[in-house]
Amino acid sequence: MKKKFSLRNWASNGYLGVMLVFFYAPIVMLMAFSFSSEKSRATWGHFTFKWYAELFQNPEILSALRTTVLVALISAVLATIIGTIAAIGIYGYKNSVRTVLMNLTYLPILNPDIVTGISLMILFVFMKLNLGFFTMLLSHMVFNIPYVIYSVWPKLNQMDKSVYEAAMDLGARPAYAMRKVILPQIAPGVVTGFILAITLSIDDFVISFFTSSGVQNLSIYIYSAARRGIDPTLYALMTLMFVVVLTLLSIVNLRSNKQQTTLDKRR
Amino acid sequence: MKGRNRWYAAPYIAWMILFTVVPMGLLLYYAFTDGNQSFSLASFQKFLDPVYIKVLGRSLWLAFLCTLICLVLGYPISYLLAHHKHGNFLSMLFILPMWMNFLLRTYAWMSLLENTGLINRLLTAIGFGQVTLLYNSGAVLLGMVYNFLPFMILPIYNSLQRMDRSLVEAAGDLGASPAAVFRRVTLPLSMPGVISGITMVFMPAVTTFVISRLLGGSQFMLFGDLIEQQFLQASNWNFGSALSVIMMVLILIGMAIVNKLGGNQSEGRTIM
């Protein structure tokens, strides 16, 4: 049996291998060149950290980095708070209203980024807001809140409703029952929503591009630098961002594995 | 729980009206008015010019090709991953590039395909001479496939994972050949994943303006570039809004068609 399947195994592993090379070759190659002293990728100079040094001395990159981090953190925190409260509120409505509200919430997820970006830009100009950091922050909240709501929603559905009713019957004030009964049960969804919001915010280019002018986040900086041409500091930036993403994802994965094992244990 | 806590949603409802409903309204308003703010279909008439129709045609064609290639490459990947003993870990590896900044991924290809880039260096070394790889539709298509392939792999992989394996065994025990098992059992059951994969690839492919700008050059125009240009360079908001509305309508029609096709598939499943 095993022998008969070996050719098939070989072919399937071969195909997966080729596709992984297709995925990683560009990334790995540019990571390697981030350590080369030569500016052109035609020749390999000697090993150097000079592009990393330049990266951390470039004021434009540093301010773009600060914008990205600030917008991601503030928008994720606010979106998580607003989204969680909104999800609990929407859950209290009867089915027909719920459907309408959840569908409207889905609109920014469904809409192409370019349409969301442009319509928000029109709104901000209409409201006479100057396009800049603040409008970028608002826009990120606009697309983050729906993801938070949709992360919290399944946890609300899985929640044991009778515990809340019992708490109320036993005389808990609504706010107390909220804190002691509802929030602990939906907490995993809230955390997922928060992490999702941060990653989406860091990754966004299109919506930031249309809703801010003069202020750059990293994506906007990369876009304009890429249009200018070769820039090894971008390879250094890519390497660093890859490491950060890898670390974040490992944390998320370990978390979900831990949740899975506690779930398995309970069964 | 019903009826309680409703007022918690109030701030969000106000927020949603201001930042979701009103912007859509403004977009429609600009699309259906002219520069003098009176009702007009001029922007839609302008779109009927062959120049613009051609841009739309090119966008749809490239997005279609990209979706097709992603499906042909991605389905086998998902299938093999779902049946692989290290499937979980390997699928992580396939999804990981998706979390890398989209512009950096595109930039990586930009510098590989350049005239002095690594691929051209290799070609010259073998004796092929330098080939212009960048700034054509091939480069744009490559960039799209590279960026969006994970969006095809992930949903198909998920649907194959969730599938009840005993159905495959049952079909085999009842005498179906492996090909028949795939066609009559596995494929229909993975159809929801295929459908969401298709929409998740087609949507960003048809709306992109970044990939076409970076890998296709400023001469290579897609529908997304056209919209961006109307707002940021030509300052013709009426025409730009009309183009956005056309894009949204096309996407909605496309999704309705794809869902309809998927719906027929699931009916076939119940018959079987």
Notes on the structure:
The complex is a heterodimer of chains A (267) and B (272). Chain A is mainly α and 267 residues long. In chain A, 82% of the residues lie in helices and 0% in strands. Chain A has 11 helices and no strands. The mean pLDDT of chain A is 87. Chain B is mostly helical. Chain B has one domain: MetI-like fold. In chain B, 76% of the residues lie in helices and 0% in strands. In chain B, helix 5 runs parallel beside helix 10 (210-216). Chain B starts with 9 loop residues before the first helix and ends with a helix. Mean pLDDT of chain B is 87; it is low at 264-272.
Keywords summarizing the entry:
heterodimer; A: 267 residues; mainly alpha; MetI-like fold; 82% helix; B: 272 residues; 76% helix
Tell me the number of helical segments of chain B per DSSP (H or I, 4 or more residues long): 12
What letter string, H or E per element, gives the SSE order of chain B? HHHHHHHHHHHH
Give the percentage of residues in beta strands of chain B. under 5%
General shape of chain A: globular
SSE layout:
The complex is a heterodimer of chains A (267) and B (272).
Chain A: H1 2-33, H2 50-55, H3 59-91, H4 95-110, H5 113-126, H6 133-158, H7 161-169, H8 174-203, H9 206-211, H10 218-228, H11 232-266
Helix pairs in contact in A: 1-11, 3-6, 3-8, 3-10, 4-6, 6-8, 7-8
Chain B: H1 10-31, H2 42-47, H3 50-82, H4 87-95, H5 102-113, H6 118-126, H7 137-162, H8 165-173, H9 178-207, H10 210-216, H11 223-232, H12 237-271
